Amino acid sequence: MSRWLCCSFLALGLPALAAEAPVYGPELEGFDYPHPVKRFEFESQGKRLQMAYMDVQPAKPNGHTLVLLHGKNFCAATWEGSIKALTDAGYRVVAPDQIGFCKSSKPEHYQYSFHQLAANTRALLEHLGIRRHAVMGHSMGGMLATRFALLYPQQVERLVLVNPIGLEDWKAVGVPWRSVDQWYARELKTDAEGIRAYQQNTYYAGQWRPEFDRWVEMQAGMFRGPGRELVAWNSALTYDMVYTQPVYYEFGQLQVPTLLLIGEKDNTAIGKDAAPAEIRGKLGDYPRISREVAARIPDATLVTFADLGHSPHIQAPERFHQALLEKLGTPR
């Protein structure tokens, strides 16, 4: 057993393990996904890793595949509604958990980069024999989807960005840098109450419904579990990746048709809580930054939802998926 898990068992203690709130393992053991989870085993940076994913086939295939890339505080499971809408429309859907997240490996030492995660995802798709597909990324997954499309444009039929983060460069506008150790200390404090309060304000624009608690407990359960320190450490490493590796300056280089689906009540900005008061209120201004980025992408279509937050596909699934499918049309 790794030092992370040993320490975590001691830190957690028996009373917490006995609590009624769900407790999940470091690879989200105990949390059920909406479709069977498969695992792609591969070697990266000298380590044997496994990447969990769902590969969902439609009843009536239209010949096209959509790859769904989750966000920082999300998992492949949070695409549940989108998987149903897309497979009902004939798409094959592949939804992986990235290395460091959810049901996939969480190495103690790994050089996280969007380039590496994109390469991992491409290796999975090659394993599945998928060579042409669309990519849809939400939140941090939007940064990853952008990097994937920049690296492998011949492979991508269409890029869809759902409230992506990275539409601004937080370093450049004055958000202070945090060390990995500082992120780690912050992540160790993660609990359901804090997750729920943040999601209420940012993800759902104050429009809370009881079914959203499933996604709160999905994340909180890992921080209650025996692998909480390993989960927190990987989360800290990936926060550093998000902060230090902007895609902001490369949107103009995209060579694929791009659809942006934006809930305008979103105000997400990494490190906003540490930003000086005079700039904090200017960060995460999605009505402004989404339009600025859409204007820079050579072949972009922008669809906005004035009343929705950071997770429009979860908050208003019928409206979101109607807009998505109308704009997707017939993929190239």
UniProtKB/TrEMBL annotation:
Protein name listed in UniProt: Alpha/beta fold hydrolase
Gene3D superfamilies membership: alpha/beta hydrolase
UniProt KW Repressor keyword: no
Residues in AB hydrolase-1 domain copies: 65-317
A GO molecular-function annotation: hydrolase activity
Source organism per UniProt: Azotobacter bryophylli
Pfam families listed in its UniProt record: Abhydrolase_1 (PF00561)
Residues of the signal peptide: 1-18
Keywords from the UniProt entry: Hydrolase, Signal
